[in-house]
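Review form for a predicted model. The reviewer records the input and the model, then writes brief findings.
Reviewer: anonymous (R2)
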Amino acid sequence: MKLITAIIQPDKLDEVNEALIKQDITRITVSRVTGHGQKVEEELYRGQEVGIDLSPKVRIDIACNEEFVKPICDLIMKAARHGNGRLGDGKIFITNLDECIRIRTGQTGSEAI
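Model under review:
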């Protein structure tokens, strides 16, 4: 089992969500987050250097079985990319998921996903 975490631009959420739904991937968690992934540039403000504030982002978490990792990542990359790609389009992190438990039924492992 794996946990896919994608950090994308907010304006791409609908496109990513629609692409996932078309492939019957409907069990996702979406969170509004802030951050920056590239080097923070400093601007001059009233004579002092100030770092640029954090940018709004969207975090998507999807727990899945091993065979779904590549198709899901491919869908997210295609839908979240602006044109041919630009700085800030986002990142995808894939982590091992040791266990999953469905609270309602008590199912565990890949059956719970």
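Findings: The domain at 2-111 is CATH 3.30.70.120 (Alpha-Beta Plaits).
Further findings: The first strand starts at residue 2 and ends at 8.
Recommendation: see findings above.
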